Amino acid sequence: MLGVLPGTIGTIQATEALKLLLGIGDTLLGKLLLYNALDMSFEFVKLKKNPNCKICGPNPTVTGLIDYEEFCGVPGHGQDVGSAGADWDISAPELAQRLQHNHIRLIDVREPHELQISALPGAENIPLGQLAGRLSELDSAQEMVLFCKTGSRSTRALELLLGAGFRKIKNLQGGINAWAREIDQSLPIY
Prior knowledge:
single chain, two-stranded antiparallel sheet, elongated, 5-stranded parallel β-sheet, Oxidized Rhodanese, domain 1, alpha/beta
């Protein structure tokens, strides 16, 4: 790929946008422009609208955007900082209650030096940077809650585990700092 190609195509796109906005010239509507930079040639392919198109045909069946989280099975990126989305988050009070009745594996994805600041009893430390290489240490049939300082790194860890087929996982929303604020005030917030 020649480095100048995006600039060339971008200039053509900008020209087309101006022509459409100003209502002047012959636009590329209904045409596909093929550009060969090696021999400086242009070709045009005329396109016809598909009368059976599910989006733009006379009887569209697709009329809105899909639910990204539902379709892909992973949280979207438009969530609050420290949140993996409603289906994947667990609050500190919810986790505290569930820990009283269930055996849940706690995975701390922070760096080892952060454990000196604050830690949850019984949590295992698998830093986010090592998680992909240590998946064999995890049981996909076991319930797990991932956490970090504020929930951002554990959200990325959750996405990694979802991609590897894990489904019984949650993200501690707000991380260990939320736990320190809402459950155990003896822990420092950092």
